[in-house]
Amino acid sequence: MADELIMDSKALIFATLADVYLSSGMIDEAISILKDGLARNPNYTLGKIMLGRAYYLKGDIDEALKILKEIYELARDSETENLYLGHCYKKKGDYEKAITHYQAVLKINPENREASAELEILKPQKKEPTEEKMTAPFEKAIPEPVALPREEISAPTEDVKLPSVKEFVAQTEEPPKEPSPVKEETIEATLPLPELGLEPIPTKPAELISPMEALNEPMRHLLEIKSVKGSFILSRDGLLIQNYYQGRTDLEEIGALIAGIFNEAEDAFKFLKCGQLEKCIIEKKEETICVITAGESLLCIITQPEAKPGLVFLYARKIIEEIRKVLG
C-alpha cells in the first residue's frame, strides 16, 4: 500500500497518515482518519481502497467487500484493490472469485508473494465434476430389484424334515480345543551404553535469544522506511548501546552531541517546570536527527532532510515499548 501512495502524486496527507496507523496496528484510528478525510474528499479512490483494507484488517468482511466492490470499476488496475477483494471472497468461501482477483494481482505485479501463496492454497479446493461423471454409468448398470407376485412364487412340493433339538445341538457343538502350549518368555538383558561400546549422542543446548536481539525485527521495519538512513540507541550519557546504522563511523561524536543537546533541553524543561522532555528534533543541513526517550535510554533515528518527523515518531512507538522492556 505504501508503494501506491508514493506513486500517487495526488496522495493526500490523511491517506499517508492512515497507512502509518494501519502499519502500527492502530486500525480504529486509521478508520476514523479515513472517514474524516473522505468526507472532505469523496472522490479520492485510493482513500476508499485503504478504508476497505482497514475494515478487512478489523475483521468486518461485509463492510470491506461493500466498499471495495463499489469502486472496482474505477480501481480494477489497483494491486491492493484486487488483493483485498481476493481476501474478502476467500473469507466468504467464494473461491472462484478469490482466484480471479489473485490472478489479476499477479498480472499487475508478478512478484506479489501474498497473491501467489493464496493461489497455491486455493487451486486444489476448486471442485472438479470428474467423480460424478465416472460413477454415473456404473450406477445405471446395476439392475433394480423387481417384485414378483405371490402366484409366480412356487411353494415347495415335498415336506421338509427339520432336525430334532438333540441333532441340532450335536451339529453346532464344537469339539473341545486342546490347550495351546505356553510360550516361555525370554528376557533379554540390556547392557548400559558404555558396556556395549556406544556413546550417548550429545544434545545441543537450546539457543537463547538475547534481549537486544528481540529488537532486531521492529528495528528492521523502521529501517525499511525510505527516508530513514539509520538508527542507534544511546545511554543518557551519550554511550552507544546498540548500533543499527551500518557503515557510519562517527557515531561516538554524534552520540556525544545528541546527549549534550538533549540533557541541556531537559534541564531547561525542569527549570521552567514544563514536565519531562520526551522527544526532540535536531535539524542539520544534510540530515535530521529524531530523538525519543525510551526509559533511561535514547532512541536516535537519522533521516533525510525532507522526511516528516511526525511519521517517524509514529513508526517508532512500538519500538520504544520494546526498548523500555529490555533496558528499563
Outline the fold blueprint:
Layout: H1 2-7, H2 13-23, H3 27-40, H4 45-58, H5 61-70, H6 79-92, H7 95-108, H8 113-122, H9 130-141, H10 165-172, H11 193-196, H12 216-223, E1 228-235, E2 240-243, H13 251-271, E3 279-283, E4 288-294, E5 297-303, H14 309-327
Helix pairs in contact: 2-3, 2-4, 3-4, 4-5, 4-6, 5-6, 6-7, 7-8
Please describe the structure with a list of short key phrases separated by commas or semicolons:
single chain, alpha+beta, Serine Threonine Protein Phosphatase 5, Tetratricopeptide repeat, 14 helices, elongated
Could you explain the architecture of this structure?
This protein is α+β, with helices and mostly antiparallel strands. The protein has two domains: 124 residues, Serine Threonine Protein Phosphatase 5, Tetratricopeptide repeat, CATH 1.25.40.10; 114 residues, Beta-Lactamase. Helices cover 50% and strands 9% of the residues. The chain has 14 helices and five strands. A five-stranded antiparallel beta sheet has the order 2-1-5-4-3, with helices on both faces. Strand 4 and strand 5 form a beta hairpin. Helix 4 runs antiparallel to helix 5 and helix 7 runs antiparallel to helix 8. The protein is elongated. About 8% of the residues have low confidence.
